[in-house]
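Retro notes - structure team

What went well: the batch runner handled both jobs without manual restarts.
What didn't: labels got mixed up in the shared folder, which is why I'm recording both outputs here explicitly, each with its sequence directly above its tokens.

Job 1
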Amino acid sequence: MQLKPNPFTHAIAKGTKQIGLWCSLSSNFAAEVVAPTGYDWVLVDMEHSPNDLNSVMAQLQVFADSDTTAIVRPDWNDTVAIKRLLDAGAQGLLIPMVQSVEEAEKAVAATRYPPHGVRGVSGSTRANKFGRVTDYFAKIQTETTLILQLETQAAVAQAVEIGTIDGVSGIFFGPADIAADMGLLGKPMDAAVWDLIMPAARALMARGVPVGTLVMDPVFAAKLLNDGFTFVACGSDTGLLAKASDALYAQVKGDIA
């Protein structure tokens, strides 16, 4: 049995625009609602949601039967957490709060087997179909997506140095945390935030590094993709549920005489 190519890894490397959705409901049932939509990628979040390894794995099983690539964000740049997620079959990882070249190199090393990294070796995992994928060790390094998230002004200033490290698939800008670092907590769409992000994003694009982000405005999401961003999440499952729930309630309540 051969390792299947990771479509998201190859798509962003070629510059093919990828539309994504944030998944924070921590439910395989909710994942089944999302999976048929056709998003190119989803982000299964462990940093700001109650996901654990089992709930993440259940969602990976759902998306495995779809055309959507599931990327997982662990709660930290932790070598053990990264190892366990890769063994569970995560096709890609988004590592939060990367602040330096050294932290980026640590993340890369965690995804690679010795002698190129420090990932622990197991011969029987969900990722290699319990030993049945015969070329897993030879190919997994090039198929795994590794995206690093920049969330402070200091990190953005090092975007090119971080993004051009061998093994980094792309750079993700976190506007909410960047805004907070700038004293604009709760204002991720403030013009000053994007005035900081865009020059760094363009510098990465000029060097062929795929760039992505999450925004809750679908018009702005499309604009970013048209302006050269490669992968953009345009909403979240929790946000969609909350907004639709509020709108439905308000509509019916407003129509009551």
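Job 2
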Amino acid sequence: MNDLAYVPIELGQLLLAAALIAVNIALSFALRLGLARSLLVASVRMTAQLLLIGLVLAWVFALERPLPILAIALLMSGLAGVSAVQRTQRRFAGVYLDALVSVTGASFVVTGFALLGIVRVDPWFDAQYSIPLLGMVLGNVLNGISLALDRFTEGVTQQRGRIELLLSLGATRWEAAHALISDALRVGMIPTVNAMMVMGIVSLPGMMTGQILAGAAPADAVRYQIVIMFMIAAATALGAFGVVLLAYRRLFDPRHRLRSDRLQRVPRPQR
């Protein structure tokens, strides 16, 4: 069996790959989807961000002190929390704090457990491991929190009459909101469950593919991917539960009243 070799991507090859976005733009024009400008902006933004982060990571990986790495991790978590809220349609006072607490708490707990108990990196804050692992967890927790929070707030609005009827009949705020909470958590975890169901048969995940392309043995890459997926599943569940529980406490007061007046609808951004 031949040794696996890493094949670098040169600038010309990168430009050739960028031509693939023309497929999306052509479909947008042909079907009048109105996405051409958004696709172009997203492509340029993604490319610039990734090229920049490539330079930043080279500096980050050279760090040998925990405080700068922790500061970078907190910055990543903060941006993830803000992005999660911006994808929702209904918001309330304190929603950004709730999302930040949920994202940071879930991702830090799970990533810390993986670094200390599973991968056992020495030192535990080694940026080569901690930052990529945290980044993969954050991306998925962000989606889970956004979906769960959006489903919960929409459910509170759409089922306001039923909830208030239950409360008027003597139900506690937990009894009135339990079905909404369960539904929001289920929605938040659906993408992760679906990904796990077909992984390895229908899809080859990016982390595993990247390791293999970089020359790692497939068996080692698979083990890392399994660890990553279990991390993502746990962090998504914790994050979604945390943000929905915090939203529940803000929208249902201690006197067992629904405070739907605290919700404000935010219009979708125009493309």
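One thing worth noting from job 2: Strands lie at 90-91, 264-265.
We'll revisit the folder naming next retro.
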